[in-house]
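Reviewers of the previous submission asked for a worked example of the structure-prediction workflow described in the proposal, so we include one complete record here. The input consisted solely of the amino acid sequence. No template or homolog information was supplied to the procedure at any stage.
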Amino acid sequence: MGWFKRDNNSAKVNVDALFLGPKSENQGFFTNTLNFLMEEHIQWRRDFHPDDKPAVSLEEQDEQLYKDTLRRTKETLLELSGKLKTTSMPWFSPRYLGHMNSDTLMAANLAYMATILYNPNNCAFEASPATTGLEIQAGKQLCTMLGFDANKGWGHITSGGHVANYEAFWVARNLKSFPMAVKAVLPNLVKGLDDWQLLNLPVSKVLDLVDKVKAANKFDEVRALSARGVGMSKENLGVLLVPQSRHYSWAKAADILGIGTDNLINVQVKDNYRMDVNVLKATIDKFIATKTPILGVVAVVGTTEEGAVDEVHEIAKLRDEYEKQGISFYFHIDGAYGGYARAIFLDENDKFMDMHKMKHRWHEEGIIHKDIDWPPIDVYEAYKAFSEADSITVDPHKMGYVPYAAGAVVMKDRRILDLISYFAAYVFEKGNDPMLLGSYILEGSKAGATAAAVWASHEVIPLNITGYGRIIGRSITGAQRFYMSLKAEPAFEVNGKKYIVHPLTKPDFNIVDFAFNAVGNTDLAKMDDLNEKLYELSSYNSGPVYANDWITSKTSLATDAYGDAPASFVAVLGIPKEQWDKQKSVYVLRSCVLSPWLIKNTTYNEYWGTFLKIMQEKIGKIVKG
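From that input alone, the workflow returned the following structure tokens.
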């Protein structure tokens, strides 16, 4: 697939030229290019065996029923356009700071629309001779960005983070059970190792064992006795440890892949919503004491509710310490949201930069404003340690600014595919790339247009400081400014009563959670009611979204998910501890700041002033109502 490769790592980009824009500022380029791509496809059809006669004659096209059918098609599409314009969410606008959505890249949109006319199915190469190669190339690009060796690793596009997480769990499950299956078929290969040792082999050692089994021509026989063939139990695979902040897809994965949700163990987070590594260690020790294996540990980089970044480096160190004691587990990073942010840490040679030199470049080149104190050292070290993981989830349709549906999963060692493959299990096609993707992934039929969109984005925008780093920088700067403005906002008066606003925590990434409260109110239920009504007035619930002047999202932070981590937050807003102990949850407004437009000082200053005025007006309506 070398003919897809282009050396563009040093190609700096102008972020304003990458998007259609809030007011369609790049309409001319977008429209002209789209027309060209459509004409290219139309001409392609005409040029395929040009001597073939048209299937529809001019006389047939002139028939009334033919015209009526075209008219009905046009009317339906016009109706669809009207529905889309009046009820769709305006992701492109800086007035939208809700879910993980923003303006999408022109390169991705145009690539998707151009490719969809060819309708490739990336399940098999013969159904997608162009886009299968693009998917493999995009997977290699993601491997490099996330710290893996692209020549040894493996990555591909999924429909989203759900499926990507399922695939990571799938390989972890099959890998954990493989050594015990080897013992049943080829005991000499694991001679001297008891069952506990076999259940705690490091990932690299298990994959070396896979190679030996294949050399003995017993791979299919052994694999049939692994979890893939005979299922699994807690006794032979153990438990999966995840932070309380984990995405709900992990509960689904535990259900679907047979571990059971009882064996999905939530680890307490700290008040910054990162997994508490000390609690993680205590949890592992507890299971070791009962001879219960640890199937895997999941770190989240960019939690979906707070944008927190788990301390990947500390978890990696912890695993190293346990491996010295003969204990090991699979290590996965759920970077569905925050994974693309690693681009901002990489130089033009894809090398992770020194903190001091990196910040100097950010400030010199306007990537992150010099007044923004980011990243915290733990966030920097967490991204630096990505290469210590065995697999990573990342979603191009989030911080990759690619249209839905585009998730991805990358794996450190491509040999792991042998444990999940179907159809000629461990046979790779010429060039050492698995072109029959359907044999190595959970999904069957899948749109080649998605792979084209991701690949095109990566070709236009380098996955380092010169490209995606500049988009990510705008997002982080916007979020930090939002946070600092909330933090600095004094009490304000509405209808003779004072109110305050406070952010949940300083964001590790670009999500800002916050809540309002009336000064002097100590009733948590009343504070929740105020914020819930503010959400109702700041969402589709308040009527047509095009008439809404500010749109956000919301979430609840409850004890069953977070323990007492939110207690310090409600205290800052004037709510006593006994109220938290009574209710055990708090309602917050949640803003994902993906917008690349808030970075501009004029836009931001206007936006922030408008935001405060809007919120005061909404509180006034609530008080009157």
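Residues 1-5, 425-431 have pLDDT under 50 and may be disordered. We consider this example representative of the routine output the project will generate in years two and three.
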